[in-house]
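Quick one:
INPUT:
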């Protein structure tokens, strides 16, 4: 059995009951395999004994920074042994006394203790007053803690302990014992993983569950990599890598394990891409499209105006296509004239005109008697595309339909029958297009907007509805060139850098939450002058995930009775019924709603020209790409436009860097490059916290060379065994199938 086939639920592992299973689910852990692949977000080095005074001195030497578990806590899958790990005290202590201090959260237990060097310190037990029974006066413990000197004493609120065994003559050994492990050796002399947590999970419970899973299953696991390839690349076996990941003997071991798992992900991804490319069948080329577009700024010759629907659409526009739009359309037409199915990604930031290019390309296929399917990730975005298509294309005798999950059954059936009979030229829809009930008479082109929100299998579900349809992917989240060349080397990529003439830059302002009222007053002035505004929040309702952040529902009430009293304030979020969301957006687009309070549901697909102001509260909680996308909701009309990013202090260094980038940079491609530098692609597209395209371990630019290696290996494997049918590749084939299922289920 290979690891990805280990789909047993973790419920029988120690400490994992129904409640903890639900907590694990929130971490993306629903099986023992996923538990074994739960990457520690950091590590805590207990391999070297360290007294309390030594730990405090180390903290002071770096300017009072917090220890590893606080300072070094990055996103899941990114950690190595933290630089601050040596600042933890790892020592035997005696409990001296109990005390209680009064705080805004009530009475808090304070435990006074002394280490073997005689240093006295205090443990602050926030939310853990029950520890008074576990730390009785006079007891001895083995302690690992981060200490700081504050309020006139040495304190720690970040600590772990176990009861100490009877003291031995040498109470603090100086080397790792080779004999049978003692409680002291089990607690010290090791590098402990620090996992991401959720709900009631604790590090103790999670570590015990992972150790049990390793003991029960790791030694029986097969390896999906062919042995020759694994040895040639200098990688540990899967079983060894799991043990090295969760209980490394050194920094090098932890990093070696991560490299093995990163390689596995990258190889499977490259195999998936390679098979998709090699599976691109041959097909007759599309008949020649309309005449080539003229240079930017020159009108079309009269003869070309009637040559094709695309030429007629361009002639009807009140503006000329940009040079980038013309270039990309010609690249698409060149693909369509080839003998293999097109696979092209068009990337361009918000407002660059990707949708117009897609419509122009679609008209060529419709002229040739083919149908076009346009897939969008949300009904809100699909409806906007459908409305635009109706306005632009129906005057050209293009038959347009919208197919979404919220339509009545009878309406869905009517559209399905029309598609099957060929009486629909262009269908725009959501996941409803992927239904088995949807069939086409002659599908020629599939357009997928915001392509990163769909998995490989979801794309296949649509492209397999015809023989060799062309595939055009679009994204408003530009992929940095260095990443695009390695991730999508087999995919043709077009980029739209320029924006339509007259598009005004958005002025970005940063403001502390202490100055929120000043921001509200400034926005109110703009509203009184006839503008519209968005207010965006990270939560729908108060208290989600135990958070005290401001939320959309509560702030709609607060704003409508306060700073924006007398102005119609609307609300939209993902939990609202589709019909209600549609009505809210209609009212906002019509100017009936002047202020729209929302979550990130408005990140894509909302285009209201009079909305010239967006306020994002708790901006430090949003990713860089998401903030840039939100900023792109404004600046679409003739009014000067503004983005106010309101943040809470103190800010982490990453948050400072993200906000500074938004303040200084307007170009989406530059923002994407900076996002890659700050965080790697962990949440590059704002999709999954666990990683770009579902990766748990692969990160860039750190693993760029490893990706190139995996790409070469995937090509070599597919060249000799395209179907992965050889016995040596059977485990790899099963792993790839499960990996594709994971990608196919991406939101």
């Amino acid at each position: 059995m290979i690891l990805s086939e280990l789909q047993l639920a973790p419920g029988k592992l120690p400490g994992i009951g129904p409640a903890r299973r639900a907590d694990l689910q929130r971490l993306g852990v629903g099986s023992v395999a996923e538990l074994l692949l739960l990457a520690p977000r950091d590590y805590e080095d207990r391999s070297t004994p360290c007294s309390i005074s030594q730990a405090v001195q180390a903290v002071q030497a770096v300017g009072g920074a917090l220890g590893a578990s606080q300072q070094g806590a990055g996103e899941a899958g990114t950690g190595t042994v933290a630089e601050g790990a040596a600042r933890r005290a790892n020592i035997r202590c005696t409990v001296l006394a109990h005390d209680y201090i009064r705080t805004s959260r009530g009475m808090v237990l304070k435990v006074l203790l002394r280490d073997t060097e005689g240093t006295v310190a205090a443990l602050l037990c926030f939310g853990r007053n029950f520890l008074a029974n576990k730390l009785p006066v006079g007891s001895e413990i083995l302690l690992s803690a981060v200490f700081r000197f504050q309020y006139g004493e040495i304190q720690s609120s970040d600590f772990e302990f176990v009861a100490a065994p009877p003291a031995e003559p040498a109470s603090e050994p100086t080397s790792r014992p080779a004999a049978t492990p003692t409680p002291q050796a089990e607690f010290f002399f090791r590098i402990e993983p620090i996992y991401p947590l959720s709900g009631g999970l604790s590090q103790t419970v999670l570590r015990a569950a992972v150790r049990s899973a390793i003991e029960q299953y790791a030694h029986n696991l097969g390896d999906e990599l062919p042995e020759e390839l694994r040895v040639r690349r200098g990688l540990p076996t899967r079983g060894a890598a799991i043990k090295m990941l969760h209980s490394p003997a050194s920094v090098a071991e932890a990093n070696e394990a991560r490299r093995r798992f990163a390689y596995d992900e990258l190889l499977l991804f490259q195999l998936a891409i390679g098979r998709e490319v090699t599976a691109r069948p041959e097909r007759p080329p599309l008949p020649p499209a309309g005449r080539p577009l003229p240079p930017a700024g020159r009108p079309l010759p009269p003869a070309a105006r009637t040559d094709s629907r695309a030429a007629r659409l361009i002639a009807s526009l009140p503006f000329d296509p940009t040079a980038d739009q013309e270039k990309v359309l010609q690249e698409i037409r060149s693909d369509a004239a080839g003998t293999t199915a097109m696979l092209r990604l068009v990337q361009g930031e918000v407002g660059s005109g990707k949708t117009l290019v897609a419509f122009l390309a679609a008209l060529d296929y419709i002229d040739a008697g083919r149908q076009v399917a346009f897939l969008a990730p949300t009904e809100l975005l699909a409806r906007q595309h459908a409305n635009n298509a109706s306005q632009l294309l129906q005057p050209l005798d293009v038959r347009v339909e919208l197919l979404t999950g919220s339509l009545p059954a009878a309406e869905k059936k009517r559209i399905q029958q029309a598609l099957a009979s060929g009486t629909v030229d262009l269908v725009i829809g959501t996941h409803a297009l992927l239904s088995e009930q949807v069939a086409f008479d002659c599908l020629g082109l599939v357009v997928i907007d915001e392509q990163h929100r769909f998995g490989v299998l979801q794309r296949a579900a649509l492209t397999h509805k015809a023989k060799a349809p062309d595939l055009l992917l679009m994204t408003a989240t530009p992929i940095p060139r260095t990443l695009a060349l390695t991730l999508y080397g087999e995919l043709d990529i077009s980029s739209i850098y320029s924006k339509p003439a007259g598009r005004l830059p958005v002025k970005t302002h940063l403001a502390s939450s202490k100055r929120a009222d000043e921001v509200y007053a400034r926005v109110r002035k703009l509203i009184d002058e006839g503008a519209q505004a968005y207010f965006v929040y990270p939560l729908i309702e108060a208290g989600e995930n135990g958070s005290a952040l401001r939320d959309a529902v509560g702030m709609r009430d607060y704003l409508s009775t306060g700073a924006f009293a007398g102005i119609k304030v609307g609300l939209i979020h993902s939990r609202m019924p589709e019909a209600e969301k549609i009505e809210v957006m209609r009212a906002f687009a019509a100017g009936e709603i002047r202020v729209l309070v929302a979550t990130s549901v408005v990140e894509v697909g909302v285009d209201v020209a009079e909305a010239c102001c967006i306020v994002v509260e708790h901006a430090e909680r949003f990713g860089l790409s998401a903030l840039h996308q939100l900023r792109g909701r404004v600046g679409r009309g003739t009014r000067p436009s503004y983005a106010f990013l309101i943040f809470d202090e103190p800010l982490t260094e990453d948050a400072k860097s993200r906000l500074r980038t938004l303040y200084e940079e307007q170009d989406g491609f530059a923002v994407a490059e900076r996002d890659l530098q700050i965080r790697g692609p962990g949440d590059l597209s704002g999709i999954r916290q666990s990683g770009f395209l579902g990766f748990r371990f692969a990160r860039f630019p750190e693993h760029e060379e490893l990706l190139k290696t995996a790409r070469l290996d995937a090509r070599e494997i597919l060249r000799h065994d395209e179907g992965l049918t050889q016995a040596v590749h059977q485990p790899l084939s099963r792993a790839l199938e499960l990996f594709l299922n994971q990608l196919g289920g991406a939101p």
